Amino acid sequence: MFAALNRFDKREFSLILGATVFAVMALLFTYLVVPKVKTFRGISTTEITLREVVENGDLLDTQLAEMQGDIDLLQRRLHGDMASLPEKEIEAYIVGKLQRMSWQNNVQLVSIEPSDGATIESFHEILFRVSLAGDYFDMYQWLREVSSELGFVLIKQYEMRPMDNLSQQPRLSVTLTMATYRAMQ
Fold first, then answer.
1. Among 51, 82, 108, 150, which residue has the fewest nearby CB atoms (within 10 Å)?
2. Distance of alpha carbon 61 from its chain centroid, rounded?
3. Which H or E run contains 57?
């Protein structure tokens, strides 16, 4: 071994020794020090976050309350008041809502025929064939109120025709098919 080392002159030997020491130090640093530094930084960040949460605990409760309010609002926009109703009560609920909206908007609710629709992916479709009579602007207001009161209701078919031949503001007959969707249990 010494014979192999004697073959190098002093300058080459010191370069090889220096490169070896540097490589060993780099490996030790990479595999021993760097992981510990990363762990320390992670723990430090977690500690800072936890301190902020403890100091601003009331803010967290406020944020949670705001988020719950947003969830409730989105739930109402999607399902209206029907979100918590069992499927058997949805028909009666919608018939009652449509009747109330018709009275409020001077629209005559002629008939409602509920029926089962298709199953689309994981949703069950409930159809309502609705016949109405009234003037154009009352019908328009009625449709806007249906959208806001019943949540996500899709108008699948819509037909409007005049009931009489009066040239100014004839009464209209409207027949439409509405669909609402429920997630299948």
1. 51
2. 22
3. helix 57-79
114, burial (CB in 10 Å: exposed 0-12, middle 13-18, buried 19+): middle
The residue assigned the tokens 């409760």 is 61
Tell the burial category of 45 from Cβ atoms under 10 Å away from its Cβ (0-12, 13-18, 19+). exposed
Taking CA atoms, 80 is separated from 7, 58, 121, 141, 169, in Å, by: 90, 31, 21, 18, 32
pLDDT digits (tens, 9 = 90+) for 158-177: 999 988 776 677 788 999 99
**Backbone phi, psi, residue 50, to 5°:** -65, -40
Strand partners, 115: 127
pLDDT at 91: 83
126 strand-pairing partners: 116, 180
| Whole-number Å distance between alpha carbons of 94 and 105 | 16
Classified as helix, coil or strand, 174 is strand
